[in-house]
Amino acid sequence: MIILNDVLIDEDIFLEKFVCDLSKCHGCCCVEGDYGAPVDPKELSKMERCFQAASQYMTPENIEAAQSQGLVDKAPDGDLCTALGPSKECAYVAHKDGMLMCAYERAFLEGKTKWRKPISCYLYPIRIDRQGPFKAMRLHRWDICDCAFANGQRLGVPVYKFLEDPITEAFGAEFYSQLCEVAEAYIASQKQGRAGE
Q1: Residue 122, SS3?
Q2: Rounded Cα–Cα distance for residues 61 and 175 (Å)
Q3: Contacts (Cβ under 8 Å, ≥6 apart) of 94
Q4: Which end of the chain lies in a sparser environment, N or C, as judged by fewer CB atoms within 10 Å?
Q5: Angstrom distance (rounded) from CA 40 to CA 119
Q6: Coil, helix or strand for 129?
Q7: How far is CA 4 from the centre of its chain?
Q8: In the chain, helix, strand, coil percent, each to 5?
């Protein structure tokens, strides 16, 4: 891993290609999995503030489930995660034109809130965790996103470029600018290494 400021970075974020392909996956990451998406404790107040707007796109059953859990649940490791509805899908899933998306994001895109969605969802396939005193940015692989990796490869878009907006939101514009410099230097060094073989 490479360190930038106080963040450890998985080099695969520079090397792998990724672009969501909703025409193939239909947003199934909103409903797949055993637990909800990770939620930073600092995001809970934003979820509460924007819940009324997001709830316009949720089913009555999921609204009740979210409210009964206090909007979030706890994963087995004790970390906060989004509440699940009775059918075990994320309570905040919104259905539109055969696609699934986050109800919070739909409210944001329609200008009803200023908060988009949990950063763990916005940043995917990057996951943030801790390694000792450092934050760590890791590339997460999930078979339901195979089409996104294939689409990114076809379009030639690295993970870190596809996720410019969420990385900037999570770490700031200066960090993202530095990340691009590090990525370009790392990719160049990999090409030089292969050329010398």
Answers
A1: helix
A2: 41
A3: 57, 58, 100, 101, 102, 103, 105, 106
A4: C
A5: 8
A6: strand
A7: 20
A8: 50, 20, 35
Q: Is 53 helix (H, G, I), strand (E, B) or coil?
A: helix
- What is the number of other CB atoms lying within 10 angstroms of the CB of residue 171? 19
Nearest CA-CA partner of 20 in 32, 29, 10, 11:
29
Give residue 101's identity as a one-letter amino acid code.
M
How many whole angstroms separate alpha carbon 176 and alpha carbon 70?
34
- The whole-angstrom distance between residue 126's C-alpha and the CA centroid of its chain comes to 6
Q: Whole-structure pTM over 0.90, yes or no?
A: no
What values do phi and psi take at 8, rounded to 5? -85, 135
Selection from 117, 70, 128, 115 nearest residue 94 by Cα: 117
DSSP 144-185: GGHHHHHHHHHHT-BHHHHTHHHHHHHH-HHHHHHHHHHHHH
Cα–Cα distance measured from residue 23 to residue 194, given in angstroms and rounded to the nearest whole number? 36
Per-residue pLDDT tens digits for 67-109? 998 899 998 888 899 999 998 889 999 988 888 899 999 999 9
